[in-house]
Give the backbone structure.
Amino acid sequence: MSPPRILVINPNSNTVVTAGVAAALRPLMFADGPKIVCETLTEGPFGIESQADAESVTMPLRRRVESDNMSAAFVIACYSDPGLHVCREATTRPVLGIAECGVLTALTRAETFGVIAIAQRSIRRHLRYLRQMGLMDRLAAERPLDISVAETASGQHTLSKMIAVGRALKEEDGAGAVVMGCAGMARHRKPLEDALGIPVIDPTQAAVTMAIGAVQFAGQ
């Protein structure tokens, strides 16, 4: 009997981001565990950096989930959680968004958390989501890098910028943990945590960890 499959969908069309996510998830791939498959949504924009970008992938994501009869769970690997609820309508299997899972994981590690966003214009969208979740009182602050999604995945100076923003979240805003607000930041989690000295949450790892738990529990 083949192991259950978890499908991780990168809603943007940047394959470098997908490769970075896959590399970050390798520690979660273990013998006899679920198979973790990372996939790029080719219909998506090169980076999801606006509300319009997020809305544009909603129905393509739903169609992808609806057409999949193999996966036991789905993870939407974009910090805006685009299409999360419409995809949940399309299946009885778990559909997890990385923003929701990343924030919930941060709450298990610290009283307050900060978020590193890719750009200033992303923050309003993220704050609206946190208000809907009722978690604004646990947010220390969200600060931007002011770079593109592509730069987070392959830029040479991304880590140094993330360290500077992370230190501001910790030292100026009082964040006890930091959530990386873009799937493209995945490869920087460990060096960022080492530099800051507080927990740093890769939201895609958080979501896949929850998906593994859901799949394993369902199989019992």
